[in-house]
What does this fold into?
Amino acid sequence: MPVRAEAVMGTVVTIHVVRESQDADAAVARAFEWFHEIERRCTRFVPSSELMQLCAQPGVPVSVSPILCEAVQFALMVAEESGGAFDPTVGHRMEARGFNREHRTGDTVHTAVIPDADVSYRDVELDHDYRTITLRRPLTLDLGAVAKGLAVDAAARELAPFRDFAIDAGGDLYLGGLNPQGEPWSVGIRHPRRDGELIETLRVSNQAVCTSGDYERGRHIMDARVDEVARAAASATVAASGAMLADALATAAFALGPVDGIRFLERLDVEGLIFADAADSLQRFETRGLRLAA
It folds into this structure.
């Protein structure tokens, strides 16, 4: 089937199913609807989104959808595992640094919430049984490192019956089965300091690959432990079973820096590759089982 692309979630999402069929066309349409639905619920750039309606009600247990519940629960888990380097409560701090523009309209978004200076993920209480979330103090959640991966994973479930397919959501990838040549998919990793150049290539099948770097939209990844933009790494790439996992862990590893980031990935039993600036070159750090292209 022809490759289909749509603009959604602040990027261009491209889906390619290797073998053409009417059933595949319908599945691709459903896959794209997941992106739109998850964006509607999880964006902080639209005041009417479910996420921002939650943020407007601090101190109150708010019933949330399964989508938002899953996204917040996963973000809190990664925050805990990373010792707070990754933290979904940085929304207001991101906004203050200029990351507050709605991609479709170009409008600048200013949230009404004025958070306390020291809010963290520990101020978010999730009751999974009742599916409620309570923000103990005023804060703004940012699910940018979770929601797109969640959408990729939902789309991949729609396409799983067709085995061989690729989803590219602005560099958040899921590669199902084999490519049109019957081989594992080849994934190029962008050189973080040289435009238009690849620094490494991975070979993957039935895996997600996501990269966080300081070259996209400037420096926008924070180390929430010190309330500063993360500067120790140039890029972090993670290959994992799902895109939500790969995206969030790549962001967390970037925030932690190359040495602690690799230890973090190995502790969680996922594969990754981190580059950091070193004099006139880049220093490379990788997990032990990373599968590179021959």
